[in-house]
Amino acid sequence: MGGSAKSPYSSLGLGVAAVVAVLDQASKYWLVHLSGIAEAGGRLVLGPFVDLVNLRNPGVSYSMFELRGNAGQWALAALALAVSAGIIWWLGRAANWLTAAALGLVLGGAVGNAIDRPLMGGVVDFVSLHAGGFNWYVSTSPTSASLWVRHCCCMSRCWGVAKPPRMGPRASGLG
């Protein structure tokens, strides 16, 4: 495909990205401004394995490459926007709806995180999973949900749900 290729599935991916970004920002707004988490000592217990906390991640995945301060957060926001541009380019070449939806999930999370960084001093993370004294990392709810859906999308491709069309020797130029 040439440089101006547009997938028939790109609108789906952009729609998914918009929904994820809005849910991401709405859930974080609720946590920071409406949940009463500060009055509850910084933790809201939802069940035996799930709490809500109010943390800022000044780095990337699992707080790696922490960049504190405004300049660092603006730099990471710019990186997230550059990655978003790459995802949009890839989305324009999505071969099927499943790939477009998965890319939309990634894009929505990247945009939500890019918004958090300059406004909140880092990505707002708030879902804390724990069991038997073991604590998993704290993440955002939409990000965690999209992570599992992305994994399922990738695995479904491996299982044949969204296989690309098979190319014969002539179609591939080998025959």
The portion of residues forming beta strands comes to: 5-15%
What is the typical, i.e. mean, pLDDT? Answer: 79
Unreliable spans: none
Q: End-to-end span in angstroms?
A: 21 Å
Brief account:
The chain has 175 residues and is of the alpha+beta class. The chain contains 4 helices and 4 strands; from the N terminus they run H-E-E-H-H-E-E-H.
How would you sum up this structure, described in words?
The chain has 175 residues and is α+β, with helices and mostly antiparallel strands. It has one domain. Helix content is 51%, strand content 15%. The protein is built from four helices and four strands. It has helices at residues 10-34, 70-91, 97-120, 141-158, and strands at 43-45, 50-57, 123-131, 134-139. Strands 1-2-3-4 form a four-stranded antiparallel sheet. Helix 2 packs antiparallel against helix 3 (97-120). The model has no long low-confidence stretch (mean pLDDT 79).
Name its key features:
alpha+beta; single chain; 175 residues; 4 strands; 51% helix; 4-stranded antiparallel sheet
What is this structure's SSE topology?
Layout lengths: L9 H25 L8 E3 L4 E8 L12 H22 L5 H24 L2 E9 L2 E6 L1 H18 L17
Helix pairs in contact: 1-3, 1-4, 2-3, 3-4
